[in-house]
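Notes on consecutive records. When two proteins share a document, each keeps its own sequence and its own token line. Never mix them. Below: protein one.
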Amino acid sequence: MDSTEAIQELKKLISDVKPCAVTEFLGWIRSNIDDMYEEAVDKSRQNCDIMLDTIRDEIRERLPINATFPTERILTPVAGPNSDCDPTTTVHVDAFLFDDNVIDGLCDDGKMSRNYCRQCGSKEISPLTFITHSASVRQIKYMFQYLLPNLHGKAVLDVGSRTGAVLYGAYLFSDASKIVGVELDKSFCDLQKKIVEKYEFKDRIKIVHQNIMNYLQYLNRFDVIILNNVFEFFMEMKAQKQVWQSLYQNINKPGTMLITIPSVKESLQNLQTNINLSKWLKEVDMCEVCKKTNMLMYGQEDPDDKDLASIHLYEVLPRT
């Protein structure tokens, strides 16, 4: 039976329990549900999950905790929702490499902290701001297992592929025939190529060391283009404006799907571009898909963790 049928069966079972025993029965469920959920998650893990975890472990060994290279130039946004990121209290934590369990372990070992002291020596502490430039494992699986249609014979492009997380996810969790990562930083390109070579992903993954502005002529060859927090922390606002205008001009094949974090509207709101968003893209309503995926991944439709809801899916409209 599927999850909907199982829920109905559970409700029926509860209704059949003697009234004097219902509280005891539900109390047992409450006490044991977390362990039962974790056991179910472990049983559902496939070889693809295990391989992705192995890749994560290996990349963590190759990178510092902030998952950056000295060759990278990271900027603090001067406008928009992330403009309040104080460089002294903002920590760059790669969501692909470091999930909450790993971060908790690092904090326990004294290698990382979630808080900072606002007045040295006092107990007046505040939480650090965590920023990620990569999709988490849950986000990656959501994209390729639930959000997107069957990608058999399709081409996927990840702009600013960094560690290659999205590329490995596309390889393991979809049938996409061509998966390309365009990355400006050579150190990250070299890292991705080593992983692709070692795990024999070369048949479908290609790494391109290039500025996306020099790759515009190829954009219409792709069926899915992914833009995950790719410009805001790496470009001045003038450069962001130019790159978005170039994407608008060059991503014009009707039906092309864009996945973005954050939304395109949020990315454009402080750039004063001439982009007519309503004539370029149609956002796909994925609320029900998100709820269903949250039930499968978290055991509830609307968890505190909003990782999946932060992902936006668009379809390119015909130009008139």
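Protein two starts on the next line and is unrelated to protein one.
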Amino acid sequence: MGSTSEAAAVDKRVDFANYFCTYGFLYHQKEMLCDRVRMDAYFNAVFQNKHHFVDKTVLDVGAGSGILAIWSAQAGAKKVYAVEATKMAEHARQLVEANNLHNVVEVIEGSVEDVDLPEKVDVIISEWMGYFLLRESMFDSVICARDRWLKPNGVMYPSHARMWMAPIRSGLVDQQMKDYEESVDDWDCFINETKCYYGVDMSVLTKPYTEEQRKYYLETSIWRNLHPNQIIGTTVVIKEIDCLKATVNDIRTVHASFSSSITAENSRLCGFAGWFDVHFRGSNTNPAQQEIELTTTPSEDYGTHWGQQVFLLHPPPRVQQGDDLIVNFSMCRSKENHRLMEIDLSYEMKQSGKLLPPVKNKIFIE
């Protein structure tokens, strides 16, 4: 039997293969660097709050291409440690050299949990947010860095985060059901052809195949940039995070019970959308001079690469303006992969003062 340390090493290699390796490709970095909402928010947060950076020491967690480390140096930091777990660190090092900042920015290839810095830092900057904020669980690494390396009066960039939800209407609910039904029909044809041409009856696999397809098409959330008019009810904050104080246990699960009133006339409740925003406020003792917000709310003109996570309902009920929804939401990490999420979502609807039976859904963020 292998030792605990050996098992941990295997887990780390698997995690790298499943997660970190994606960020080692320039095409993936380019997608994020082309997100103007993302880029403008971080750029403005740094350069409109130079007092947090001038002559300060900065740690960039998950530095990627190194853009945040470079901005920190350009804003006046005396030393920036850019920690990146993938081979993207080599590209970041090249960018730092090309921008003549190698005397300020030190790129370190490795995970922030393992590296050793020679000093504490005044600022931790990181773009750690995943789909619906917490997918990918990268904030764990930021918390680790904060607890190890941030000075008592240091600041976090971003400093605060919120998760939002709202009821929506969308043609996606019909499309996903259609795709699911076509997939099941195709399996039936496959069963018949395999038995006819090759003499093997594979019908014993029909149930697991159907369950697999149901999870994929009907129980897995979908990424979309929604239009604001697809929101059909009041929006609600379901989680608030103070990045200076939050612990891993605080974000390991998210539980929320909330109410939302339908604002659209005669619509279908096709599901719920989830999104997030983050804020650059500094701290109570060291506030930002100019607070900056980065939001991924549904927008007609300012979509982001995060978009929104759409949790569809099958079948979608009809709703009227003034109907009230009472929603229970629970999100936890997948047992198979801690960077993915499992969601239990149930709701009750009050129509014309009458409370209808509750509806429960299991949904995955993969």
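For the record: Residues 135 and 340 are 6 Å apart (CA to CA).
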